[in-house]
Amino acid sequence: MRRYHGVLTAAAVRVSNRWGQTSSGETDDVVQEIYLKLCADRARILTGFQESRPEAVFGYLKVVATNLARDCFRKRLAAKRSTVMTASLDEVGDVAAPGNDVERQFTLAEIDALLIRHTQTETAKRDRAIFRLYYGQGMTAQSIADLPGAGLTAKGVEGVLHRVTTAIRRSIAPAQGTGAS
User: What DSSP state is assigned to residue 135?
Assistant: First the structure.
């Protein structure tokens, strides 16, 4: 521990700073998570390493600690998001975006009308749900793809979003007197 604690702590500090977590308590928690993962499964991560040079262990631990710290933050972020995404894509259906401002509701109604007009295929309901989840609820393409019943990968969701968004922008551009981007 004495020899490698600095390497593990430096990795935890670097990753914590990248994730915007600068408190020492947060960094200490990440370091503890790194130690737990290194010791898990009978220290499989450590015992599986075959060093070619004595100094290689420092580089190995630096990379492993950095990846474990990133995983720690990803896990925390996923835990925060997962409470919101419990409904299947079929259950969500045609849900309008939240808000009660009259002008915003009018604009959303216009966009919704364009959305309905540009999604007149056999996948119309799915495409509208994807559009509303992404723009109305703020979900990522990956989180939408992970919903039961989506039937698409993250790239597929991004493709649907691109196609529908481009069609809506082209409809809006003449009314605004600008070209579609």
Answer: I
